[in-house]
Amino acid sequence: MTAKTIGLAAFIALAFIALAFLAEPAFAHHVMGGRIPATFGDGFLSGLGHPIIGLDHFAAVVAVGCLAAAHRAAPALAIGFVLTMMAGVAAHVRGMSVPGAEILVALSVIVLGAAMLRRQAMPAGAAIGLFAVVGLVHGYALGESIAGAEPTPLYAYLLGLAVIQSAVALAAMSVAQAIAKKSADLSPLRLVGAGIAGIGIAVLMQQIIPGA
């Protein structure tokens, strides 16, 4: 890869970290301004809003797409992650309680970023397990914005969530595959992985250190 490409990847990674420090963590789960979606349109828009306004969730989906890209069944891995995320939403809606969910979300982003820094592709079995756990954790956290909603906006939320998460994951997968085909040097992807891990660290600090 050229120095220009690596420099661009480094800039993107640092920009992600800076945004993570500036973002308001609670906002990521309240697309409708803290109001529970009441219509199909509200639910669908709320679902589409994730993970766009939640940088930690966006970073996780990008990382999953990039990590899945190394495997033959990459699309299936990416979609499987989305399905487990939706299962996590359902668990929250049904009243399941997970203490420290936001901290778990931050830790999962750190783990995904660290996995992108590996020089060898993650084994398929390990990727499936990691994606399942991360999907459930993030889905549970995202379920906060829809818990208590009526069935119609709830189903619309899940539809919007599935559409946007799948689009982001598959787009990241395609970009990662294009980079891998172009050169054996995966430094740009590792730099993005470092940025994703940095986002996780920034979000974790916001959770455990008031005012961070």
List the helices and strands and how they pair.
Blueprint: H1 3-22, H2 40-49, H3 55-68, H4 74-93, H5 101-116, H6 124-142, H7 151-182, H8 187-208
Overview of this protein structure:
The protein is mainly α. It has one domain (3-208). It is 72% helix and 0% strand. The chain has helices spanning 3-22, 40-49, 55-68, 74-93, 101-116, 124-142, 151-182, 187-208. It is globular. It starts with a helix and ends with a helix. Mean pLDDT is 84; it is low at 20-28.
Provide a short characterization of the protein structure.
With 212 residues, this protein is an all-alpha fold. The protein has helices at residues 3-22, 40-49, 55-68, 74-93, 101-116, 124-142, 151-182, 187-208. It contains 8 helices and no strands.
Supply database-style keywords.
212 residues, mainly alpha, 8 helices
Kindly estimate the percentage of residues that lie in beta strands according to DSSP. under 5%
Number of DSSP helical runs: 8
Low-confidence stretches: 20-28
Question: Element order, helices and strands?
Answer: HHHHHHHH
- Tell the overall outline: globular
Largest sheet geometry: none
- How far apart are the first and last residues' alpha carbons, in Å? 36 Å
